[in-house]
């Protein structure tokens, strides 16, 4: 069934591509091809979810495509860990592909092909049983990112974002190739399960390279700079696939590497802890002040990569100190956050696509009352925002609580460097969760609610589509249902990570509906009971208010709202999206590199009112923020990169003998390296 699912993605991509060969006037064929492509992708995702569920139940799959005695078998394998990520990844892909059907009326069949290519690449990575197929799927994933991000290449910023995505994808692939090559040379096999057979310094080097390769794909600092522009540039329905589905391939690689290679050096574990904390706070800081809806959601992906990375780093600590229960709590926290991020990010990007199509803008300064104008998009923004803010009754509350509880276990570790790094990471993640509340209150309170902006009448073609509504309902149900059924979700995760931790996850469930961070003497929480208690208290409060106030409770007294403390204040008064985020720009000015500049806002000789400039000119502050990593790491490297590119161009002489010489030098270098590693 795994092969069938992958072949359905191939068929979906082929149908979309075949539509290009039709006559340009055959609009009907293009619409049918686009709808068929998205529909086949939905079916493929459903089938792979079923395959993953069977693997979690103990019925895995193994498909051997080629077998070689020295190197091992090349093929596909679905075990419990793979099944867990298949359920998570393609579970959110089903509504994301459904949302793509709203484009089925248009003549853009290639968009469905690009989306299907993303699904095929992710499926190959998750089910690969050997290094060869893993690298092939990884390269295909990078190529599909390039196609998807640069799809609307005529629009501003698409070309740069596509080049960034391709460049970092190639960097990630090169790191995986080098790391996998080192491990394969040491083990004598390309089977993933055999890569860690001979521990040693070379194995540690291979592990580090693999870890770096997967970290680049998920967007950990300092390799995060490609992620926000790429997600923002991708076409509407594909953003949800890239952010909610494709990124899970990187997290799966981290989990799988930990299973195969086990404990790593303490210094590497400390580096991952610190980078995870830095990614979390940097991502949410930029999300909290970003002026564009797409940019806010994209930068929060960097934050979530850090929070998920923190859970994974706790698992690395557990491996380093030999504590399976610490590994278990780290993987439980990280996987819960993977589910939260996948569902909420897909929901937010699908809703943002409807907002962009319906209102013609994603500028947060111009968006108000989206929930009134576009109800389904507004519901998606509210539930997705509250989930990523970690509010109670959402999946984010349970996952972030588990992550913080995991980071608080540093007192169980004897090594001082690990204790300090866990404490620093815990502080940064806690600060991140606090700032995320501010960031998403801005999204929910000022964008989804409030008085609608009259300047943008709704064009709700997407909002009226049944596929968009079904996709929104499914993803919103996941965001809320994971919290309501948290013990069942934890049991599913425990079944998936059992190959890594054995029965150590059994301590996470207490009394059926109560969760704890594996260690029974620390803390406990029941997200399920919160779903019962909080609504019950709300109903009780309303009943008591009605009983004690009588009929006065239902009376409405209307009065003029206070809008400003200054008489005659021009224009609209009250909080704007920019003004609400201004305290974050001030408080985190060192991290955001906030820059203030006083400018003359009306320098023209004559204003629109006909008054002279001297009488009507106004001064105002222009505030901007900069990515500190990009400013101090990548900008200084640009001259060096340009020099290398110029030198590489000079090597392209067009002479066959020169190219043969290059190949000979490369072959000799490979022989030397292989001989040294043998």
Describe, in plain words, how this protein is organized in 3D.
This protein has 678 residues and is mostly helical. The protein is globular, with a radius of gyration of 26 Å. The strands form 3 sheets. Strands 1-2 form a two-stranded antiparallel ribbon. A two-stranded antiparallel sheet has the order 3-4. 68% of the residues lie in helices and 5% in strands.
List its traits:
678 residues; mainly alpha; two-stranded antiparallel sheet
User: Using only CA atoms, what is the Rg?
Assistant: 26 Å
User: How many angstroms does the end-to-end distance come to?
Assistant: 39 Å
Specify the overall morphology. globular
Portion of residues in beta strands equals under 5%
Q: Count helical runs.
A: 25
User: How confident overall, as mean pLDDT?
Assistant: 84
Number of β-strand runs: 6
Q: Which range best describes the helical content: under 10%, 10-25%, 25-40%, 40-55%, 55-70% or over 70%?
A: 55-70%
Q: Describe the sheet with the most strands.
A: 2 strands, antiparallel
Oligomer: single chain
Indicate the structural class: mainly alpha
Give the neighbour order of strands across the main sheet: 1-2
Low-confidence stretches: 604-616
